[in-house]
User: Fold this.
Amino acid sequence: MSQSIRVIAIRIAAIFLAPLGTAGAQSFYKEPHGLFSTRPGETKSLQTIKRFGPVGMGIDLLQPAFVMRISSIEEGSPAAETGKLSKGQIIESINGQVLKEIDPRIQLGRILAAAEASDGILKFAIKGESGPVKVKVPVLGAYSRTWPLNCPKSDKIVRQVADYLSKPDTQKGLAGIGMLFLLSTGEAKDLAVVRQWARAVEPHRYPWYIGYGGIPLAECYLRTGDPKILENIQIGVENAAKSQHNDGWAGRGSALTSYGAGHLNAAGTHVVTFLMLAKECGAEVPDHLLLRSLRHFYRYAGRGNNPYGDHRPEVGFVDNGKNGKLAFAMAAAAALTPDGENSLYARARDVCAIQSFYTTSFMLHGHTGGGIGEIWRSAAMGLMREKKPRQYRDFMDNRKWHYDLSRRFDGSFGILGGSGYDKEQWGVAYPLAYTIPRKTLRVAGAPRTKFSKPCQLPRQLWGTEADNTFLSLEAVADEDGKKQDLSKETLAGDSSMAFIRRFHGSQQPTDDEIRRYVHHQEHNIRNIAACKALGINSGYIGWIAGGGKVRMNLVMEFLRHHDPRVRRAMFGALLNKPDVITPEVFELAARAVRDPHESWWVKDAALQIIGRGSPDQILPLVELLLPYLRHEEDWLKNAALTALTPVVADERCYRRVLPAIGDLIRKNQRVSVTKGLGPGIRSRIKEAGSAVQELATQTLEGTFTDYAGSKTAPGGLDTTSTFEFHLEAIAESLADVPGGLDVLYDIARQRKPKEILPYKEFFLNADSSRFGPKLKKAM
Assistant:
C-alpha cells in the first residue's frame, strides 16, 4: 500500500470506524456515531451553534462536553427583550435540561419544539443568577405526523415567512428567490405581492440571477397571465442566450476557460429550469438555447452527481444542492412536454430527487460551506412525498431540528451551520421544504394553467434505450428477475454515512452483500460496491483507499451483467485499478464499444478501459474507435482520445490516427473534450520516429492554421477568450514536437501579424539547440 493510500485509510478509520472520545474516557454520546456527519465533536474546545431558532441567541459549546455559553444575542429578539441575557454568560440548563447523550443541536431543537407546543416559555438557568431567566417565544403547537401537510404548526411557520417576505424592506433572497416561496404558499394575498414584484423586477444578466429570479417570474406568469411579466421573462431568456456557451453557463455569464472547464453548474442548472418554464409561458426560446442546455444537463441524471462544471458526473455523496436543482430542471421539462409523467424527464426528476435521502447524512458539506445544498436537498425531497413516503417521512422527521433552529424571530430563515449561506439572502428559500408538497408550483406538480403552452420535447433526447435504465427508481433485478425492496430503507441504516461505515468496517462484506449493493438503485452506492469488489474503499466524496482483496469472480459477473447500471459501475470502478484489466476484461470492453445498442454511459467507461490496454490489443480496434472521435457526445469523444492514446505514434496506424485527432482538435472549443494534445499523446510523439513526428507537425500546423473555433457563441456571447485558449493549447502542442517550434514561428506570425513573437514563452523556455537556422537568426 502506498503512503498516500495508507494515510487516507487511517483517516477513514478515524472518521467512520473508531468510537468517539479518548480511550478510557467517559463518552458524552450514548451512541458512538451520529446520524449526521457534522455532529459536534465531544473533544473540541469550542464549537458554536449560531442560532437557537427564534429565541435569538447563539450558543458556544465548551469543555467539559458540553458546557453552554451564550455567544451572541440578536437585537430585537425574545432573548434580547429580557434585558438579562448577554454574551459570555454560562447556561447551566434550559427548562431543566442539560446537554446530554445526543447531538446538542438535536436536543436544543427538541427543547424549542416542546416549548412552542406548550406555553412558549424557555427558562434559562444562568450561572451566578439567583433565578431562571424566562424567554417567551410564540406558541405554534407541535408538528403533526403528516407535517408539513395538515399541520397547524407548519402552516404558522409558512405564514410567518410569507408575512416577512411581504414587508417592503425585508430581504427577498438572491434575485428574489423568496418570491418563489411566496408563490408556493398557494394563497391569493401572497400571489398579489409576487405579481407586483414580477411586474417591476429588473431582469438580470448574471446566470445566478437569471435562474434564481427567473423561476418565480415564470411561475407567477403561469398563475396570472400578466403580459408585463411575460415581457420581463422574454428579456430573461435573451440574457440567458447571451451568456450561454458550450450548452451551459458560468456563474457571472462570462466565457470561462479552464475554471470548471468553462461552467458553474450551481448557477447554470436553475437557468435550465427557467428556460423550460419560460417556454411554457409562451416566450420565444431558441432551440439551440432550450434543447442544447436541456440535453447537456439531462445527461447527469441517474449517473452520479450533477458536477461542478462541464465534466462527467461526479461520484460521492456531497453535491452542494446541484442534484436537487437538477430535479427541478427535469420537473420543469416534464411539465412542459405533453408526455408529462410518462416522459423520461419525469423519471430523471425522480432519480435526482431521491438522492436527497442518500446524501443527507453528509449535510452542510460542500463547496463554500454547504448551506446552499440544504435548500435544494430539502426542496427536492418534497417531490418524493408520494412516491417514497417512508423515506420522505424519515428524512423530514430527522431534520426537523435543523429547520426549527434555522428559523429567526422575525419570521425569516437562515441555514444553521451553512457558513456564508446562513443569512436571509439564502435562507428565505429554505422553507420551501414546508411548501413543495403542497403542489402549488408547476415544478412541484401543480396542473397546467390556462396560460400554459405545452411543447413537445424529444422523447429520446440522449443516449440509447439502454441509457434510460439509469432513470429507474427500482433496484436492479438479479438473474432470477427479483428486485430488492428499497421502500423500507432508513436514514439511520441506509443513508450514505451509515452505509459507508458498515461497508468499510473492520469485517469485510461477503460476496452476497457486495451483490446486494451493486444492484442498488442509487448510482453512488453501486459505485462503492463495485469498488469493493476490487478491494477498494471508495468514500463520500470519491476518495479511494485500500479495502481488501480483489474478487475477480464478482468483477467478471458484474461486467457480464444483463443490466447496464451494473456494467457501468464495474467498468467505472476498474478505472481506479488498471492492473486488474485482464485480456478477458479488455475484450468485454471492446464488445461494449462494438454493440450499437449499448448504453453510451457504459461505452464511456469501456472506451477508457481500452485506453489502459497495450498497443497490440488496441491496434485491431482502431477502425472501431476512430468514429467515436466524431460522436455527438463529447464524453465519448474524450474517451476515444483516451482509447487511442497508446497507438497514436504506433508505426502501424499513426497515419490513420493522427489526422483524425487533429480534425477533432481543429473543431473543438471544449476543455472537457481536450485542450490541444494531451500529455500522454505528446510524450508518445516525442519518443516516436521522425516519420511520426513529421506527420504530427503537419497535422498540428493544419489544425492551428485552420482552427475552426468561434469567437462568438450562438447567443452572442464573446468567446474570444476560449478561442485563444484553445489556439494557444494547439500552439503549445506543436512547440512540444521536435521541429515544431520552427513551424510555429512562421504560422503564428501569420495569424497574429501585430505581435513580434506570438507565444514567446514557448520559445524563451525551449532548448535553443532545437531551433532551425531561420528561428535561430530571429531569436
User: Anything to note?
Assistant: The chain has three domains: 3-136, 152-444, 614-778. Residues 614-778 form one domain. The chain has a mean pLDDT of 94. The first strand starts at residue 46 and ends at 49.
